[in-house]
User: What shape does this take?
Amino acid sequence: MTTSAKLASVVLLSGLAVLPQRAPAFADDVATYHVAALKGITLSVGSKRAVGYYTATDNACHLTLMLADPYTGTEKAVSEPVRVNVKVQEGTSASVDALEGSLAFQCAPGATSMMIQPIQRVAYNATAK
Assistant: This one.
């Protein structure tokens, strides 16, 4: 891993350390975020935390996202952080799924901005008769 990649990972993961605990978003608590290129994002995805940014090249949004367990300072992380790179063409969308939720990303025309929407997935459980 190069020095700049290590530094970027440290910066992104340090953002996870200062995130407050937050309940997952439900259907009536859905927020949509609009982000410009190279502006950092920090979101909750179920019990995970997501930190990232996107760059705009070739009329596409190139998203870099780190998913990790929240840092509380008292215990060791349950799992290692995961880095996700996604290319979203202008006018299209993509999603990143975590165990307890998803993030939907939509790239605006010309890759001028990116819309992000947390999605809480709830499994249907039919009672057996």
In short: The helical segments are 3-17. The longest strand covers residues 48-57. The CA atoms of residues 49 and 108 lie 24 Å apart. Residues 4-29 have pLDDT under 50 and may be disordered.
